[in-house]
Amino acid sequence: MLRAPSRRKRKEPPQRLNLIPILDAVFIFIFFLLMSANFIKIFEVQSDVPIISSDSPPPKKNPLALTVKVTGTGINLYKGVPSRLIKKISKTATGDYDLENLHTYMVKLKQNFNDERSVILEPIVDIDYETIVKVMDAMRLFRNTDDKVWIKDKDGVETQAKYLFDKIVFGNIRS
To answer: What are 27-39's pLDDT values in tens digits?
Structure first.
């Protein structure tokens, strides 16, 4: 009589894969990735989008309506409605925009129009991002060496102005 081999009769449960060492390695790998990652600070420059409305704004006496056009040859400043050219700032000898001259003129404008805070910025299409930020900083921020400008707050108390023209609106946004 033939006998069946013994290994067929013995039923062993299938061996399970031990996942604990693999999971430990994955968690350690994630930990080292997080510890070695470089976290960068991202800064945001506040800018408003032009508002299209059917209502006309309340009339102000002689609004500044300052427009700064950044062209390939320099920076042109316009004021009023209709706009007229008030200052043309050419590029420096190195080919960079003359941001010092722009900042100095913006301080003079702020001294004459201390209640104004908005400016329309119209850069050329192929200008790089860093140049736009530098132009915006020259228009927005006072420096420690600048003459102080005093404005009246909502309560009528004179306080030192913290910003030149900090409400920057892009005037030539194309979609």
So the answer is: 999 988 888 877 6
